[in-house]
Structures are given as C-alpha cells and as structure tokens.
Amino acid sequence: MRHQVVIIGAGPSGLLLGALLHQAGIDTLILERQSRDYVLARIRAGVLEEGTVGLLRRAGCAARLEREGLVHEGFALNFAGQHLRIDIKALTGGRTVTVYGQTEVTRDLMEHRAASGAPTVYEARDVALHDFDGPNPRVTWTQDGQSREAGCDIIAGCDGYHGVSRASVPAGAIETFERVYPFGWLGVLADVPPCSHELIYAGHERGFALCSMRSNTRSRYYVQCRSDDDVKRWSDDMFWDELRRRLDPAAAAQVVTGPSIEKSIAPLRSFVAEPLRFGRLFLAGDAAHIVPPTGAKGLNLAAGDVHYLSEALIAFYEDRSEGALDTYSARALDRIWKAERFSWSLTTLLHRFDTSPPFERRMQDAEFALLRSSETARRALAEGYVGLPY
Ligand code: RFL
Ligand code: PHB
Known about the structure:
The chain has an eight-stranded mixed sheet with strand order 6-5-14-15-16-13-17-20. The chain has a six-stranded mixed sheet with strand order 8-2-1-12-19-18. It has two domains: 5-70 and 101-178 and 269-347, FAD/NAD(P)-binding domain; 182-268 and 352-386, D-Amino Acid Oxidase, subunit A, domain 2 (D-Amino Acid Oxidase, Chain A, domain 2, 2-Layer Sandwich). The relative contact order is 0.17. The protein has 390 residues and is an alpha+beta fold. Helix 1 (12-23) runs parallel beside helix 10 (298-319) and helix 10 runs antiparallel to helix 11 (323-350). It has helices at residues 12-23, 36-41, 50-58, 63-68, 88-91, 102-116, 164-167, 236-246, 249-254, 298-319, 323-350, 358-373, 375-386; strands at 5-8, 28-31, 47-48, 70-72, 75-79, 82-86, 97-99, 120-121, 125-130, 138-143, 146-151, 154-157, 175-190, 200-203, 209-213, 219-225, 260-274, 277-278, 281-283, 289-290. Helix 1 links the parallel strand 1 and strand 2. The structure holds 8-demethyl-8-dimethylamino-flavin-adenine-dinucleotide and P-hydroxybenzoic acid.
C-alpha cells in the first residue's frame, strides 16, 4: 500500500489537511486511533476566526457552518464587578468571529471525507512512524488484529498533544517550551439559552468564569477550578452557584440553569515544539503546540498550520522541489508564537493565581483600567481575538 501523504489523527487538523490536499488531487490516508463516535463526543472549541471559516469554505465544508454558525461582533469582559464590551467589529475594521462547535466542524469534515471516497482508518492501533529521515517514510499500525503498513512521501503528524508523531522525533532534534498553569477549567454543556447573546469572560476574586454557547438553545459555561480537582465533586447545583457568584449581577440574573449534558475538567497549558519539520515528518495543530483556551485560539491555530502546510505540500507536488517544504516551520511558528503570547496574556489577566503576590493583582487591576480608558488597548485585544491574517 502506498499513498502520497499519510496523516496521523482525524481531529480538525488532520481532517482539514486531508480535505485541502484531496481538493488539490493529492492522495492521502488518515489513521485515527479512536472510533468516529469517540472523536465526535469530545466537547472542545466553540469560536472560529474568519481565517478558519475561509479555509473550511475553500475545502468545501462550510455550508452548514454558514447556515447555523452565530456571527459575533463583540464580547464582554467582567472584572471586579465592572462590565466592559469589546466591540471587535468596530475596532478591527469590520472583522467578526463565528460561534460553531468543534464537534460540528469535525462532523462536517468527516462527512465530506467519506463522500469524497478518500480512505480513513478509525481504531488504528499501535501506529508507528519509520524512516522519515529519508525520502521513503513508512507507517505501520494494527487494524482488526492484523499488522498493516503504508509507504508514503510525507507524514503529517496531526495527532494532538499526546500523539505518537512528536514522540517519534529523536530528543536531540526537538526543543520544547512549556508553562503549566496551576489551575484548570471545569466546563458544563447544557440545553438552556445562553445568559447573554455575546460571550462573557469574567475575572473575579473567586476565579475566572466564561459564558459561551453552541446555539441559541445550548450553552457552554466554564469556571476556573483547582488543577487536581475531581469533576465528580461538582454537582450541577454547585456549578451553577459558583458560576453566578463570579459574574456581574446583571449577567448572573440571566443565567438559566438546567441539567448538564457534559461536564469535564481541562488542564491549562502553554506549549510549543520547535521546529515543525523533521525530514519528511511535519507536525501541525495540538501535536506541535498547546494554548490555554482563554483566547479561543487552539483550533484556529491548528487551522493556520494546516493552511501553511497544505500550501507547502501542494507546491512540493507541483514542482517536486524541497524549497516549499523548507518554509513551513518558520511561517507557522511566527504565527504560533503570537497566538501563544495572546493566550498567555489573556489567561494572566483574568485568572486568580493563589500564589500571586499582591503586586500581580495590582497589575491585573491596572491592565483592566487601561482597557477601560484606552481605545488603543481595546483595539490590540480585539485584533488578537479575531486572529492574525495568514
Ligand atoms: P486533536 O483534536 O487533539 O486531534 C488529534 C487526533 O489524533 C488522534 N490520535 C492518534 N491517532 C492515531 N495514532 C495515535 N497514536 C494518536 N494519538 C492521537 C486523537 O484521537 C485525535 O482524534 O488535535 P487537532 O486536530 O490538532 O485539533 C486541535 C484542537 O482540538 C484544539 O486546539 C482545540 O480544541 C482547543 N480549544 C479551543 N480552540 C479554539 O480555537 N477555540 C476554542 O474556543 C477552544 N476551546 C479548546 C477549547 C480545548 C479545550 N480542551 C478540552 C483542551 C476548550 C477546551 C475545554
Ligand atoms: C467554548 O465555547 O468552548 C469556548 C469559547 C471561548 C473560549 C474558550 C472556549 O475562549
């Protein structure tokens, strides 16, 4: 068995790369460790930048997103009981974001791939990468108890933070940068109308809270919790009470409660691996970097990587030169580090760090005061939120 590109992972990065390459006539095989239903059950991102929507459109996967996605022109910050709206549309010359769940993006990409006839193997176990330091890499895996192998020109490692691709790189060839935050996010999904038509990011004495949504009838809320917290400790009532305590009274009064349909804790981490190319192996998405979710950048950053990687691979197959492949890592990393800075800075502004000396608290107060008084500061925040152009 031989394919031009073997993609490891059928998350949004792998599926979007597969769609863009298929459209350019490049043959791909996707190997995914989990089942299709398992991948679709993960509740993750909710906010898409215009660049991400544009890529999905180019890949031919944006019809439902364009019908059902909610276009947002602003979001709110709550800080120490004060409310500040960031008018992203006005501050960025007309740019907006779209609220549409990662689960739905993944479902649309999966359906598009199945209709195209391009091969995907779900429940591919023991995936291993071989010979990617030369021009003929191979990938092996186990499927229904049988050993399988595929040769290829290129391996795309789109298998997330815990995947096998980054782990296959010799330690001396890769450098990593990491910050683990001393808290997590407890998230609840519930079929209740959102408390506000725009997202609210709240910084409070008791910790951060976020009001988000998936539709006009389904809400997604988060509260900062201890990183070693146990989700079983949190009843729905405890969650709703804690959420309302952290919002300004007007928003808290609008919270409609109901039974949770999903409840989980996510740790917060900033992480970057450099470089993103090792011979014929390329890393993209969470396999290469993690951002804390505060700025809604993770999925969007993955889409940015896929944009640069698909361009490089299409150019490689057009003229068979390595030149295009050489540019991928530096182009993607330039954008990645800027998004890392944005997510780190919004996380630092809005979370309660128990270990922080009073000086750091005053820095948070001063930064919020600056956002209130300075349109320039608000514009910088809005530009970061809508995302950098590719
Ligand atoms: P994924 O989604 O982790 O997919 C990787 C896939 O690879 C598979 N895999 C393997 N396959 C074969 N062999 C192996 N050895 C394998 N190991 C792993 C996995 O099963 C999986 O299917 O990575 P990808 O595609 O790079 O996508 C990245 C995004 O999922 C991630 O950045 C976002 O979800 C982050 N994120 C958010 N991003 C945003 O842009 N906006 C948001 O609003 C946002 N909110 C969030 C988030 C992430 C969160 N959590 C839980 C981490 C909110 C939360 C709570
Ligand atoms: C979400 O809806 O899950 C979400 C929204 C905005 C964020 C993070 C997560 O910054």
